[in-house]
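# step 3/5: fold
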Amino acid sequence: MSGSVGDAGVFLAHATPGNVPPELTPIRLLTGWVFEPIPILVAMFFGGLYLYGVHKLRARGDSWSRWRSFSFLGLGLGTFLIATESALAAYDTVLLSVHMVQHMVLAMITPIFLALGAPITLALRTLPAKWRNRLNALLHSRYAKVVTFPAFAGFIFVLNPFALYFTPWYELTLRNTFMHDMNHVHFVMIGCMWFWPLLGLDPMPRASHPMRLLAVFATLPFHAWLGIAIMSSSNVLAGDWYDNLGRDWGASPLSDQGTAGGILWGSGDIIGLLVFLVLFVQWAKASEREAVREDRRLDRLELIEAGRKAREERLAREAAEAEAAGADVSAGAETAGNPVPKSTLPGDSARTEEADSAVRVAGGPEPRPTGAAE
């Protein structure tokens, strides 16, 4: 069901043929809102999980960055709700230009702030061991490495809008409320798959900074090509829908489509360049941190080497001192154990014989051999 409350009120669902909101004005841009339950439920579910994780973390005395919480809840889910519940949603099936603004918010702004909220890191710090191990296994699986590889994720990110606007898929999302809401969720999911490995703080497979810069630079022209293709087309996208909508105000569908192409071209390039600059700054800071770590590592190695040399010198000195002391002891032992050599001076022989005689007299008569004749 859809409808409106006054000129500037709450629309119950997105516009349909015969039920078009009033002309879009600055006042209605601020006050025109819709009630779309699926985006609200999605935001409440993930926002509730995030808040529970933060509460659990702080309850046990651990800290969590308020900036991360604000990025995820205020800027991430906040822009998601603005894109799906505000006047952007009230007029997204009426004007392709409004839809394109909504598309860029959901695909390129919301995912960036969700990534900066580091929800996977929060989950790893608060989940029970069983589920934490499963999440770790998923993050390090081959599937995660393929999905987050810049070439693959960038290809999906670029292909998605081409597939949407140049196939019947876009008109289907205009006619079917469920498909319309799920298309919004789809934009965010594709954006997260692309931006989280590039800018996110979570532990997941991540290419080197040069590879990420190259991937972002390679995707920049595709927004321009798609925008130019939409601007230069002489056929209105989902023309049957816009022709039968019954809108009698504002620009013609073809003129509005040209505006939409310009929005896609300009905003895509601007956001892409900002992401490129952020990645370049991150690379520079990472290089500085790596240089500091390398300097510290080299300093530690120098200290270890200096300690090793000092220890070797000390051991060598102690060994030399021990060897010298051992030589002195050996020399003393040799001196004490050797008999005094007989003198060769005149008279020494007589004095020696007299000394021997004195010893024999003092010791008494020598024992006689057994059996000797008396």
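# step 4/5: annotate
Strands lie at 10-11, 33-34.
# step 5/5: archive (pending)
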